[in-house]
Amino acid sequence: MRAARIHAFGGSEKVKVETIAVPRIKKNAALIRIRAAAVNPVDWMVRERIYNPRGADKLPLTLGQDFAGVIVQVASGSATSLRKGDEVLGETWGSFADFAVAPLKDLVRKPRSLGFVVAASIPMPALTAWQMVIDTAKASPQKTFLIHGASGGVGSFAAQFAKWKGAHVIATASRPGFRHLERIGVDVIIDYKKERFEKKVTGVDVVIDPIGGDTQKRSWGVLKKGGMLINLIGEIDRAAAARAGVRGVEFGMRYDTDDLRRIVALIERGLVRPHVARVFPLGQVRRALDMNENGRSHGKIVLRVA
Ligand SMILES: NC(=O)c1ccc[n+]([C@@H]2O[C@H](COP(=O)([O-])OP(=O)(O)OC[C@H]3O[C@@H](n4cnc5c(N)ncnc54)[C@H](OP(=O)(O)O)[C@@H]3O)[C@@H](O)[C@H]2O)c1
User: What is the average pLDDT across 148-174?
Assistant: First the structure.
């Protein structure tokens, strides 16, 4: 089978699409024929060893995590209702390949009405957005959200979950993302490349910040007292949060198939639309990773595998 692998951590030149053996199935796991796999920032962070989690720390390493595909084999003796031929989505290390092994407990059924490309674009960004906007920030019609990076994977889902709960949503993005943000009903769009958001925004309840650094620094002042900034990258400046009289939350996504099923149901009903900007064949994995790393994806990039 084909697999996008690295034999040393580093830049995209380290990635090679190689022919290797199909992975062996383990207990309580399924072998999946990958049909599509989405690119997330974590994929080039793992490749560069900026992020080195268990499961993606040993070489040679097949890249990729989010996927949608078809079960080709279920480990014998597993207690599951999943069967060969079922269409599923989820996360597993090594999804940039023709086949991957995933724990059965981590799989969610893909509705037939959702294509594989759209389904693959969901798990990581949508779960992250759901747990921030619904569980942590408790979006409601009384709340105003400022969502940075709203054209990106996480930001686009965050904006839509907040709108779905009736919140007022202000979004920052650059020009290529505007059409999508208008379509999903964001209330105010600010071009972060041309405008200073802190000059236009004040008194928000929640800031969703997948950018950090200077964006975090400039965000404290737009929050009302008692508000909340949820940070996805780097660290919270605790002293700045205290000075502003707000809560700073350092957020980490927890993989949860119940949450993923709820999200898939919303997408199936057309209430939320994944923002797939580009689709590349697996052979163009380097280009796909580079585009995301260089801030040129303006939405999700998905690899079509089969
Ligand atoms: N902690 C966790 O559990 C967790 C989970 C998921 C993701 N993350 C992290 O969250 C970050 C975002 O992930 P993602 O999947 O959404 O990435 P993404 O799809 O690459 O999106 C990033 C977005 O950031 C926007 N952007 C860049 N600079 C900006 C600025 N100065 N102001 C406002 N927007 C700006 C870009 O907007 P334009 O395209 O419009 O220019 C782009 O759409 C990554 O660093 C990722 O590693 C963390």
Answer: 98
Q: Give the length of the chain.
A: 306
Q: How far is the CA of 281 from the centre of ligand 1 (A)?
A: 23
Q: In 3-state terms, what secondary structure has residue 219? A: helix
Q: How far is the CA of 173 from the centre of ligand 1 (A)?
A: 10
Pick from 304, 289, 291: which is nearest to 15 by CA? Answer: 289
Provide the angle, in degrees to the nearest 10, between the axes of the packed helices 123-130 and 257-268: 100
Structural domains of the chain, ranges and CATH numbers in brackets: 2-122+274-304 (3.90.180.10), 125-250 (3.40.50.720)
Instruction: Report whether residue 148 contacts ligand 1, using a CB cutoff of 6 Å.
Output: yes
The per-residue pLDDT for range 107-146, each reduced to its tens digit, is 999 999 999 999 999 999 999 999 999 999 999 999 999 9
Ligand 1 lined by 192 (C-beta under 6 Å)? yes
Q: Where on the phi/psi map is residue 234: left (φ > 0), alpha (ψ -120 to 50), or beta?
A: left
CB 207 within 8 A of CB 176: no
Per-residue pLDDT of 259-275, as tens digits, reads 999 999 999 999 999 99
* 156/148 Cα distance (integer angstroms): 10
Give the pTM.
Answer: 0.98
Residue whose CA is closest, atom 21 of ligand 1? Answer: 152
Residue 205: how many other CB atoms lie within 10 Å:
21
Q: What's the rounded Cα separation, in Å, for the pair 62 and 39?
A: 13
